[in-house]
Amino acid sequence: MKTVGIVAEYNPFHNGHILQIREIRRRFPAARIVVVMSGSFTQRGSVAILDKWTRAASAVRHGVSLVLELPTVFATRSAQYFAGGGVRLLDRLGVIDVLAFGSEYDDLSLLSRLSKEIDTNETTDTLRKTLREGASYAAALTGKAGSDAVIRHPNVILAVEYLRALKRYDSALMPLPTPRFSASHNDRTLPSDGKHPVASASAIRSALSAPDTRDTALPFVPADMAASLSDHLADTSRLLRPILSRLLTASQSELADVAGVDTGLERRLRRSALSSHSYQELIESVSSKRYHQARIRRLLFHLLLGLSDKTARRLEDEGPLYARPLAFDDKGRDLLRAIEGNAKLPIVTKPSRFLAKTKPLSPAHEMLSLDIRATALSSLTTDPVGSPSANADYLISPVYLPA
To answer: 1-189+315-403 architecture in CATH?
Structure first.
């Protein structure tokens, strides 16, 4: 029996994700599926619109066996760290055979060629130089490999990063690209023909953001997710005041130490804080061709989280240090037992107990503490505040959904 791993955000879990699960089952009918999922915040630096337990439970209801949280330090970084963290966590479980990932192009030979081209010394040196100049990772990557239009698709970039991570960490997981069963990753428009209720997560979130279009998004998600999307949706813009508070009271050296802040950017952040009246205005004021908006959102989140560049790099070197289940079914429960016997890392079901057993300054303690802080910050973004509560990590157990 194959066990297939997926790295995802499920923000929200939608019909395209269901189609990917069905495709995996078509290829491996008896497969157990393990998903490593972003928790309270996503790779774009925005809060997930629903809490991690609700999103994970929806995935299990629709064919996933077990959902584990991707630690925040990997979930909120650029594509290479997001992919690397997910691959390393799946690999360290000791039970995963296959890594499945959706892509606009599912030709493994093509994706492998692109990953090998990027891993040449010349390309790696160019990427480092372009990143030092402030370009986003995606822009640096497409700038070097831009002659091939394939690499310009966001999910192709992630697919290539999964392949690079498999090689970098000497993983035996078999790569399985699957066709992307939705519109373009960044398409913010819902399909209008009504015949194919599949849309990108970006389009669904965009429709959900306005009361007059919210109902139009619901056909594109399963019924249980639609019910959850009726209220208490998180909105990152509600973090404006705490962000401005930190920007206006932190010293220049404190701002310069934040993960993602280059030399000089701390002054730009302070100037923008003095003149911005909304979250989006702040993002647009700081961003530029050199500093793209996703990067600014991520570093502002890191500012609130108290994540320094030094700490981020140190924890990235460690890789994921625990497996934290969010939701599972009967197959997932069996998998957790198998992981206990095969994994190279502990299973965390009760964070308080795990933190009590680890040294306060140990990497594992730091990594889990960041996840808990992220949940506390996400509680400030719902209306009313605290849905779920700021200490939800201590109160909510993994969701068990028996067959």
So the answer is: 3-Layer(aba) Sandwich (3.40)
